[in-house]
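Lesson 9: reading folded outputs for more than one chain in a single document. The general rule is that every protein is listed as its sequence immediately followed by its structure tokens, and records are never interleaved. Here is the first one.
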Amino acid sequence: MQKDQLASFLTLYHCFGIGRVSLIALGEQFSLDFNQILEANRSDLNGAGLSNKQIDVVLNADRSTAEQAIAWAEQPDNHIVCYDENDYPPLLKEITDYPPLLYCSGNIELLKNPQIAIVGSRNCTPGGARTAKDFAVTLAKAGLTITSGMASGIDTQAHLGALSCGGNTVAVTGTGLDRIYPSENKQLAYDIHENGLLVSEFPLGTGPISDNFPRRNRVISGLSVATLIVEATRRSGSLITARQAAEQGREVFAIPGSIHNPQARGCHRLIQDGARLVDQASDIVEELGSLLGYLAEQAPSTARTTKKQLDSDSLELLEAVGYDPVSTDVLVGRSGLTIDKLSSMLLILELNDLIEPAPGGCYVRI
């Protein structure tokens, strides 16, 4: 889009009261000549279906915000992509409420890559964080771009997993791209700008407004061929993303967890509602292989980690730990070991990445 047309489009986009439906309808009415829309008289705008209030907004439109956005887009690796341009992601345009504009910062070619959304709880468990990162690594190596919302917890680990193996990642934010949220992810945002892509539909300067995050979620799922939920409570915003993905006709995967873990209950509900249960990344690669044929050929080995060489006592203790958090007092009773001997053996199991500490002085099997 030429600069003057982009300026007019942005001016209309930032007009309060001119929603996406009206904006797209105006574009069709005026043959995508957005300059002409701003130059139109009241009669022409009324004929295009605008209300008197909307007409007043257009006739008195402020162009300053558009000028700031264009100045931002002229910086290296910054882009503004409109819905009628070739760079607009075709998969996103399939959803009914696709955003008419995307602010992008980084490698814009990733918009057209096959993507999988990995989302979940902000307050994830250590095991959930590791699972999200491990799945992201495997799926990124298989050729999928990892898409998430750059929130704390599962989202962050998904992005980090993709970056750690040289894979591709897209972060869809609920703020303007000049505002980093949460603030502790400033370095992550920089790394994604350098090695991936940051995306937002919200104007520059937009802060973390709660209503914007559900809107962001539909873009995360809309960009992706499938959505994976790693951990989520029953009231988690990640379930919104899963529901939107299902409504958009996309695949939904969920990882099960312990029945005692509240962070797993949202995933269990999704599985009850028809989401595909997965416990290893190869399940997803196989499922999407028919849709994206090359994935199966590129996928790295996803064989499960085997137990380290352990003596019989350590193997028995590993079985006693189990996959639900258990205290050392309970383990003393189950194993018959002294507390000193138990502590030593637990340390060996932890160093071999077979168990990990859990809250309350407990341990859990990995």
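And here is the second record, again sequence then tokens.
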Amino acid sequence: MARVHKNTEGRCPRCCLPPRWCICEEMRTVDCGLKVDVLMHEREAFRPTSTGHLIRRVIEGAQTHVWEAGKPFAAGELRAPDHELWILHPNGEDLPTGPAPASLQVVLVDGSWKQATAMMKTLSGWGRRVRLPITGQSRYWLRNQLGPEQFSTAEALLFLLKALGREEAHERFRLQFELHVYAMLCARGEKTEAAEYLQQSPIAAAMPALVAKLNHCRKDYYY
């Protein structure tokens, strides 16, 4: 029978993982060349698995703004002057061509589909709704996706970076995203899922020392 350990140690204030699983030694900031903001639902704000928190930690200059039901949220709290505002949403227009990334402010809505629908009403008229060319399957194995086209907030940013030709930023942020998911699976004690995830991930080759340490912990520890 697997040993189950209740976590009483708290979490690292930076990576949001229990100290045993801390991944801060491989955390790297990513300059993606555009301004990124995350509008986060209040229920998402306290979830360590949130990729909105990951974006704030890793993407240089990124900010999160917590949306609370019933409380006003003014455009001035989010909008950056001298930037064209894009709001990423599946029901938006096709990805525009032409704008330089440095002139863009991108808003990602972080929450469940139902929560995002409510938050989008707040953002109505603030900028252009933009749809991304998203394909494939989600690598966000920490939660069940509702459909084949459902992706995490961080994955939406990854698709955008690739579409804008920000290849280096895309690859660097992809590593941070995959590490976040893998470490969270390990910390949960989802041993089989973690092993399967690692087989398809670039982090084993990119950060072998940390992955080896996490694997060693994973062998005999369930969180």
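What the second record shows: The two ends are 14 Å apart (CA to CA).
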